[in-house]
């Protein structure tokens, strides 16, 4: 029996994984990942890196980050503590949803994971203090391949649910998209 229900979003390839925790009077047991149960999504990819973040202040914005091909990565992101508004932006130049975004609440209570395929940028806003996320990546971090979008770029028109109280200097300095932005090739 699978411990997951996989849901499609309005962006092709972007999935939401609903966990099915086993709950009893002691609390619950939750499977975060199982290659057998998620083979349809993961395919022959391997998890190459696992990262854990803590964001202390509600309203803090992280992202939008991605890696250029051939170092693009699929990310599976779960919230272990708190609530976040998690956003993926389609950067695939041949996609019908190029430069469209999808936002999803991830929380310790809703037991959801967002599965972001290669060719997307990712970011999130902490909606509560002390938010912790865990990221499973299918490619290792490559500083020479990293890039980002400006999360407040009017071209993207992302509607962040709270006033932004903090961003890293790097994230603030990501350039705005030009009208001839060509996207990412496969």
Number of strands: 13
Question: What series of H and E elements makes up the topology?
Answer: EEEEHEEEEEEEEEH
Q: In which range does the helix fraction lie?
A: under 10%
Outline type: globular
Domain count, please report it: 1
Please tally the helical runs, counting DSSP H or I stretches of 4 or more residues.
Answer: 2
3D architecture notes:
The protein has 186 residues and is mainly beta. It has one domain: Jelly Rolls. Helix content is 4%, strand content 40%. The chain has two helices and 13 strands. Strands 1-2-10-7-12-5 form a six-stranded antiparallel sheet, with no helix packed on it. A five-stranded antiparallel sheet has the order 9-8-11-6-13, with no helix packed on it. β3 and β4 form a beta hairpin. The N and C termini lie far apart (34 Å). 30% of the residues are buried.
Secondary structure blueprint with pairings:
Elements: E1 4-8, E2 15-19, E3 22-24, E4 27-29, H1 39-42, E5 49-55, E6 61-67, E7 75-81, E8 83-90, E9 101-107, E10 112-116, E11 120-126, E12 131-137, E13 146-148, H2 169-172
Antiparallel strand pairs: 1-2, 2-10, 3-4, 5-12, 6-11, 6-13, 7-10, 7-12, 8-9, 8-11
